[in-house]
Amino acid sequence: MTHEPVMLAEMVNALAPRDGGVYLDATFGGGGYTRAILRAAECRVIAIDRDPDAMARARELAAGEPRLAVVQGCFSGMASMIVNAGYSRVDGIVLDVGVSSFQLDDASRGFSFRNDGPLDMRMAAEGESAADLVATRTPEELARIFRQFGDEPEAGRVARAIVSRRVERPFVTTRDLAGVIADVKRKVRPGRDPATQVFQALRMAVNDELGELETALAAAMEILAPGGRLVVVAFHSAEDRLVKRFIDAESGHGRSVSRHMPVADGPVPRLRWLQRKAAQPSAGEVQRNPRARSARLRAAERMAGDDAEPDWSAAA
């Protein structure tokens, strides 16, 4: 099983690791970003992930790398998690908000319609699964999920088909659900599986991915040291839009995104764009790794303000 980090060089360039710095890889996944950061400078990295399998890989890497600390949990809780790792501030934060190749390629996780497996999709082994969701939601609720998180043009038709079929027997496997979706859809984009958008929507709903990202961005402002960099790689238009609006609001270009993201009072911005236009993967990378095609990278720098200076005593 292979994992190719998306836009790796662009991420390192935007994060700009420096010797003596402390960086947070808030989505360890396969560890590609963490390894690149550790190679780029004599720095320390705190790696977090809510996926138990990803944490097993992180702990294996940490066993031979004293500059790496590992903490398991959702990135929305990053503020308390860096405290658990012995720090109060970090010099940079990177978030890769997509599902990892490890998760997609492992049929037992139930993320992919390409490999038959249990209809699960949970990044952490807790809470409501995708099977639970399709078994309990009304047609209207399912259609809203498919439209909001998957941009599915036939959301209502697919939702009604799912509800009709579950009366006969519950959905248990990914192949079963993908088959029903394929049977009912009238239009399919060439080269795309009919189940693509519905599976994406279910995964995002099961893991509350937009809510997690929204809370994580607000938490990043609590722990990012002046001059520190925030780098986010998103794969979904709603996620990318959320990141753009957040940085716009914090850099003085827009209004507060939500109650979870209050903008500081007064004219002084807390972030500045490094490049307002999102960076995209090169044609060569997309050809080499088609999963990178929808990636968008945005980056900003924390402005100096009234915050207390970082406490690096724990790193000594």
Most strands sheet:
7 strands, mixed
Helix and strand element order: HEHEHEHEHHHHHHHEHEHE
**For the record, what is the CATH homologous superfamily label of the largest domain?**
Vaccinia Virus protein VP39
In terms of DSSP E residues, the strand content is 5-15%
Describe the structure in your own words.
With 316 residues, the chain is an alpha/beta fold. The chain has 2 domains: 8-102 and 208-315, 3-Layer(aba) Sandwich (Rossmann fold); 125-206, DNA polymerase, domain 1. The protein contains 13 helices and 7 strands. α2 (32-40) links the parallel β1 (22-25) and β2. The radius of gyration is 20 Å and the shape is globular. The model is unreliable at 306-316 (pLDDT under 50).
Short description, anyone?
The protein is an alpha/beta fold. Helices cover 41% and strands 14% of the residues.
SSE blueprint:
Blueprint: H1 8-15, E1 22-25, H2 32-40, E2 44-49, H3 52-63, E3 68-72, H4 78-84, E4 90-96, H5 101-105, H6 130-136, H7 139-150, H8 155-166, H9 174-184, H10 196-206, H11 209-223, E5 224-234, H12 237-250, E6 271-273, H13 283-288, E7 296-302
Parallel strand pairs: 1-2, 1-4, 2-3, 4-5
Antiparallel strand pairs: 5-7, 6-7
Helix pairs in contact: 7-8, 7-10, 8-9, 11-12
